[in-house]
């Protein structure tokens, strides 16, 4: 007989987003913990991808999360690393992506259903608009998941074949 997992509570939009943000922080930490055990020169090895290195992909995830957190908080948007470049160390990237993911999760955990449903305004160099916090948070968490997949793929290309499991279902089972 196959074991089953039963939901302990009803799923709501807020519980799903709270869980999604916590999962994002967990998954980013797992990847960082894994990458910290690997040779540092592999983090800057160039491959054909959206972002050419493991480090650049992690910086992009971190930078994008910084942007969207500012949007959902209706705070000033930080200057993007894409605009000014990133000249920090690999250790800084590892530390800050984990810290920022935990900060984003803590903020999402603090939001009520009504606050999640509030509309927020944003202005970017590409588009201006308004959407609910729900939409922006969902977009950001999905974006990070997309690029974590690229981290694993880039890792395989540079010879790292032992990436940790970061699937959401795995998180739900052990997280």
UniProtKB/TrEMBL annotation:
<dbReference type="InterPro" id="IPR007837">
    <property type="entry name" value="DinB"/>
</dbReference>
<feature type="binding site">
    <location>
        <position position="147"/>
    </location>
    <ligand>
        <name>a divalent metal cation</name>
    </ligand>
</feature>
<feature type="binding site">
    <location>
        <position position="60"/>
    </location>
    <ligand>
        <name>a divalent metal cation</name>
    </ligand>
</feature>
<comment type="similarity">
    <text>Belongs to the DinB family.</text>
</comment>
<feature type="binding site">
    <location>
        <position position="143"/>
    </location>
    <ligand>
        <name>a divalent metal cation</name>
    </ligand>
</feature>
<protein>
    <submittedName>
        <fullName>Damage-inducible protein DinB</fullName>
    </submittedName>
</protein>
<dbReference type="Pfam" id="PF05163">
    <property type="entry name" value="DinB"/>
</dbReference>
<keyword id="KW-0479">Metal-binding</keyword>
<dbReference type="InterPro" id="IPR034660">
    <property type="entry name" value="DinB/YfiT-like"/>
</dbReference>
<dbReference type="GO" id="GO:0046872">
    <property type="term" value="F:metal ion binding"/>
</dbReference>
């Amino acid at each position: 007989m196959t074991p089953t997992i039963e939901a302990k509570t009803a799923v709501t939009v807020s519980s799903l987003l709270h869980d999604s943000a916590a999962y994002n922080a967990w998954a980013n930490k797992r990847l960082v913990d894994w990458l910290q055990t690997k040779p540092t020169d592999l983090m800057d090895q160039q491959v054909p991808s959206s972002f050419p290195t493991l480090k650049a992909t992690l910086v992009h995830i971190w930078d994008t999360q910084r942007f969207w957190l500012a949007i959902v908080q209706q705070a000033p948007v930080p200057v993007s690393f894409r605009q000014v470049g990133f000249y920090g160390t690999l250790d800084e990237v590892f530390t800050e992506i984990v810290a920022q993911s935990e900060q984003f999760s803590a903020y999402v955990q603090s939001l009520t259903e009504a606050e999640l449903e509030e509309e927020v305004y944003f202005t970017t160099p590409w588009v201006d608009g308004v959407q609910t916090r729900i939409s922006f948070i969902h977009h950001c968490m999905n974006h990070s998941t997309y690029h974590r997949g690229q981290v694993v793929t880039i890792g395989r290309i540079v010879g790292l074949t032992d990436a940790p499991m970061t699937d959401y279902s795995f998180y739900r089972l052990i997280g």
